[in-house]
């Protein structure tokens, strides 16, 4: 069970760490609001959206693939290849600069925007369904539940921490982009590590 939780944590962190639109928005709102409580709506909304995608991915994919061993193997190989590619893209990526039109969003706008960047983002959906969903097929019963809950826990922890980091570091100038580059490099290494774990599972089938 420990290895299952570790796999889920590595996978979730590897996928969520790259600073895309969703993460940038949460970070910026944390930086722009004077009180952390005022950014709670965007944190909760982003985390709930991720939770929904994770639950749908784990339950939906598993129903389809468990009936066909060859499909399970194929999906796991696809997931490993996708992770290897994503790791390369993440390694080469650079943080997006803060725009000049940033504003402090109201609660309503925070929720609407957080939903749009979470559920209307094909890249995020592909990450969840194509990677977390396919990785979950390696487990059954309580192990699959533990895998899913671990991914969900990482998501909630990450968004809460990201908003807090934005509050602390939001006023630092653009030279701090060096830190963002380091974060993306570490994320790429995590993604590649999970790809190797997935490849090992394929060999075990």
List the helices and strands and how they pair.
Layout: H1 2-16, H2 21-32, H3 40-65, H4 69-92, H5 107-119, H6 122-136, H7 141-169, H8 177-204
Helix pairs in contact: 1-7, 1-8, 2-5, 2-7, 3-5, 3-6, 3-7, 4-6, 4-8
Can you walk through the features of this model?
The protein is mainly alpha-helical and 205 residues long. The chain has one domain (2-204). The protein is 79% helix and 0% strand. Helix 2 (21-32) runs antiparallel to helix 5 (107-119), helix 3 runs antiparallel to helix 7 and helix 4 runs antiparallel to helix 8 (177-204). The longest helix has 29 residues, at 141-169. The protein is globular.
What distinguishing features does this structure have?
globular; single chain; 205 residues; mainly alpha
In N-to-C order, the SSE pattern is HHHHHHHH
- Sheet having the most strands: none
Which structural class do you get from the secondary structure elements?
mainly alpha
Low-pLDDT segments: 98-103
What radius of gyration results from the CA coordinates?
Answer: 17 Å
Strand content: under 5%
The percentage helix is: over 70%
Quaternary structure state of the chains depicted? single chain
In DSSP terms (H or I, runs of 4 or more residues), the helix count works out at 8
- The count of β-strands is 0
Could you tell me the mean pLDDT?
A: 75
Form type: globular
Short description:
By secondary structure, the chain is an all-alpha fold. It has helices at 2-16, 21-32, 40-65, 69-92, 107-119, 122-136, 141-169, 177-204.
